[in-house]
Design brief:
57% of the residues lie in helices and 13% in strands. The protein has 25 helices and 16 strands. The strands form three sheets. It has a six-stranded antiparallel β-sheet with strand order 3-2-1-6-5-4, with helices on both faces. The radius of gyration is 45 Å and the shape is flat.
């Protein structure tokens, strides 16, 4: 068959692809296996070395942490400062029990010494005796001047114990020494936790390995652990490979060296925790012997793989080709003109045809989404859409809107008599106006514009901003569209704009308001932008409400200005009584003012219960008042004055909270590049607001407070630590030490060095 062209190509390609890599792989494995295995063994050895280090340091850190916890217990800290005698048996027994408590079998601790430097007493496993362990006291006293608060040391302690003392099972011992207080330059006491060299070797759990040996040496190149336990404590500084490691500045490494006239591969790791060095020594000859055996194995495997690939190429290709043949025949039956082509060529053309159809369908669906949105808007205008479905459908159509205010805009052509268009072109012009609206207004600020009856309707919205800001934005939008329509189409169009609304179901009323607004073109002329609230300012009772006086009253309450609030309240009561014709309208204005003031408190997070704890509601009390003086007095005494107090209390609480939070951030991050903007981002307030609040609460600005706090930290470090002035300046984020010294001298009158040498008062 002609269609078996691809099958023949597949068989040949499989043979070439299968045989060539196998031959190359066999040669490569035979030639380079020695080097590869050597690298792998070194990597494995490095991992074992790392695991050994982690296991040892984990145990040492556990002992270190346990000893630190014990040393900082109230019992220990209170006892070190006392002069103990044999009469303090109960306290001594408690100390002895606590020391024995950390000597668990798992940690391998053999003895714990607690030594009071000030009172010259020492407690250990052998009990309390101020006349024993004299050499041990000298040893611990010598560590009192060490820089670090805690240190691991290893040494021969055979001369540090009395004849009857046998608490250490091997003369060479590992010891953790701690000062108390931990960072003090003049400690009051010392603690030593002892591990014998034999127990340490058991802790490390070194296993015999025919390939090499493992060494652990301390800072003085004394052997801490080894397979041969008799070597523990041996000085290794004369070994060539140990000297090479000591001279190297790298924390880890791998090199070759001769050990006892034999080539060795040596891996090492230097510990940053206690200065120990972990060394693994492996004979290269043993590693190469294993590599050669692997190389021969790889050669035989390559031969077998070559034979297998030939069999698979001949037999397996037919099975692989079967689904290709099935797809090809299906496509060839559909278009017989393709039978003369290669199988993959026919399949490729078929797939491209399917993808083209899919793209075409997707494009059509995207076009339909806009039409579906237009249909939904039409249903909203006719009241057919349900409120619960509108938001869900808009999200399905690709709109993620969270508007809190909306307006309807209705664009209508003024006249075609003086234009170059006829009446029959009106529908085409409306469609063009709809496209202009889509281009000029961002999609997140509008729904799809629709041609509705003889006009173009647009629903625009916003998520944030005041009502006046939204109105100005809508006006600018309308004027821009009018200018574009006139520029591109040479026709004039007017726009009617509804009042703001918050619910989608109010769009129907918004459309009706736009229709009414456009009727005022007769009075205002062509190409007008008409807001319904401007052309019908007296519609409803809203116009009778003294908005300006109410706004001034609310502003005075927010400003905590009682005098101005009292004056604004009097103006409101006077205006409300003059602008109505009946008592019901007057009461409605008062109720509306009460609602506005209650909303002001609720927006500030203040419950209505804080304002009124009586059984009778505020509205009932208000409606039972009749005289203007009584109403004004009631509003001021029961609403305005308490509201000012509650808002001030709320504001003071908020100010203290913000100030305390900024102080906490300074205490936590004083040694970072901390700025007011970073603090603002952490507590979600504007930087200028935080700056004003912080200055009001502390009396100084943020930068001055941060600088003063860092100065206090620097003074404490100068008194209590041995940190250099350069290190302190760097930790406190000064650009250079000179700036730090200059600021310190300005604030304290002396340099940091003079301050450190100054005696404490």
């Amino acid at each position: 068959m002609k269609t078996h062209t691809y099958l023949r190509k597949l068989i040949v390609l499989t043979l070439v692809v299968g045989a060539f890599p196998v031959l190359i792989l066999g040669w490569y494995s035979y030639t380079y296996s020695s080097h590869t295995v050597l690298e792998k063994v070194n990597e494995s050895n490095a991992q074992i070395l790392r695991q050994t280090q982690l296991r040892v340091e984990q145990t040492l850190k556990t002992i270190d942490y346990t000893a630190s916890q014990l040393l900082n217990t109230p019992l220990m800290t209170s006892a070190i400062g006392k002069r103990l005698t044999i009469t303090d048996s109960e306290l001594i027994n408690d100390l002895y029990d606590n020391l024995l408590g950390i000597q668990t079998f798992e940690l391998g601790i053999k003895d714990v010494f607690l030594y009071s430097l000030e009172n010259d007493w020492l407690i250990s496993n052998s009990g309390f005796n101020e006349y024993s362990h004299v050499k041990m006291k000298d040893l611990l006293g010598g560590f009192a001047t060490m820089q670090a608060g805690s240190k691991w040391v290893s040494m021969d302690l055979s001369e540090r114990y009395d004849a009857e003392s046998s608490v250490v099972s091997n003369n060479y011992t590992i010891m953790n020494v701690k000062k108390w207080p931990i960072n003090s330059l003049k400690p009051q006491g010392m603690m030593a936790v002892l591990l014998s060299g034999k127990e340490t070797n058991n802790l490390i759990d070194l296993e015999d390995d025919n390939m090499g040996q493992m060494y652990i040496v301390d800072e003085m190149n004394k052997l801490v652990a080894h397979q041969d336990r008799t070597w523990i404590g041996k000085d290794m500084s004369q070994e060539a490979f140990i000297r090479h490691i000591a001279e190297s500045s790298e924390p880890t490494g791998l090199f070759k060296s001769k050990v006892q006239d034999e080539d060795m591969s040596i891996s090492y790791r230097k510990s940053a925790y206690n200065g120990w060095t972990y060394v693994s020594v492996l004979p290269i000859s043993e590693m190469t012997k294993r590599a050669k055996s692997i190389a021969w194995t790889s050669l035989w495997v390559s031969v077998i793989a070559l034979c297998t690939s030939v069999i698979i190429a001949v037999l397996g290709t037919r099975s692989v080709y079967r689904p290709v043949r099935s797809i090809y025949r299906s496509l060839a039956d559909a278009k017989t003109s393709r039978e003369a082509k290669d199988e993959l060529g026919v399949i490729s053309e078929g797939i491209q045809s399917l993808l083209s159809n899919q793209t075409r369908m997707q494009f059509q669906l995207e076009g339909q989404q806009e039409h579906m949105t237009e249909l939904l808007v039409r249903k909203m205008l006719t009241g057919e859409a349900k409120s619960s479905e509108i938001q869900e459908r808009l999200q399905y159509y690709g709109y993620t809107l969270e508007w809190d205010k909306m307006r309807v805009l209705l664009f209508q052509i003024d006249d075609l008599a003086e234009s170059r268009f006829d009446e029959k072109d009106r529908d085409l012009l409306l469609f063009a106006i709809s496209n202009i609206v889509s281009e000029l207004v961002p999609s997140h600020e509008r729904l799809a514009p629709i041609v509705f009856q003889d006009a173009v309707l647009l629903i625009a919205g916003t998520q944030t901003g005041s009502e006046e800001t939204f109105k100005d934005k809508v006006f600018d939008m309308a004027v821009t569209i009018q200018e574009a329509v006139k520029g591109y189409l040479s026709v004039e169009a007017s726009v009617g704009i509804s009042r703001s609304f918050t619910h989608w179901m109010d769009a129907e009323q918004g459309y009706a308001e736009c229709v009414v607004a456009l009727k005022y073109r007769v009075q205002l002329g062509r190409e007008a932008a008409l807001f319904i609230e401007d052309v019908q300012p007296k519609k409803g009772k809203e116009s009778q409400y003294p908005k300006e006086a109410a706004a001034q009253l609310i502003d005075a309450i927010q400003s905590s200005d009682k005098t101005r609030a009292h004056e604004a309240l009097g103006i409101f009561i006077e205006n409300a009584s003059k602008s109505v014709d009946n008592h019901n309208d007057y009461q409605l204005s008062l109720v509306r003012l009460l609602v506005d003031l209650i909303r002001l408190l609720q927006d500030s997070g203040i419950s209505l219960y804080a304002l009124n704890q009586k059984e009778r509601s505020l509205f009932d009390e208000l409606l039972h008042l009749h005289a203007a003086r009584e109403i004004e007095a009631w509003f001021y005494e029961h609403i305005v004055e308490p509201s000012i107090g509650l808002l001030e209390e709320r504001r003071d609480t908020q100010f203290r909270t913000i100030s305390d939070e900024v102080k906490r951030l300074i205490e936590e991050a004083f040694d970072t590049d901390l700025t007011l903007e970073k603090c603002a981002a952490r507590i979600n307030y504007h930087p200028q607001y935080i700056s004003r609040v912080f200055r009001q609460e502390t009396g100084i600005n943020f930068a001055e407070y941060l600088a003063q706090y860092r100065l206090d930290i620097a003074k404490r470090w100068l008194r209590e630590t041995n940190m250099t002035v350069t290190d302190i300046a760097e930790k406190l984020k000064y650009n250079n030490p000179a700036n730090f010294i200059r600021y310190f001298r300005k604030m304290e009158g002396i340099t940091p060095g003079q301050y450190r040498g100054k005696p404490e008062k």
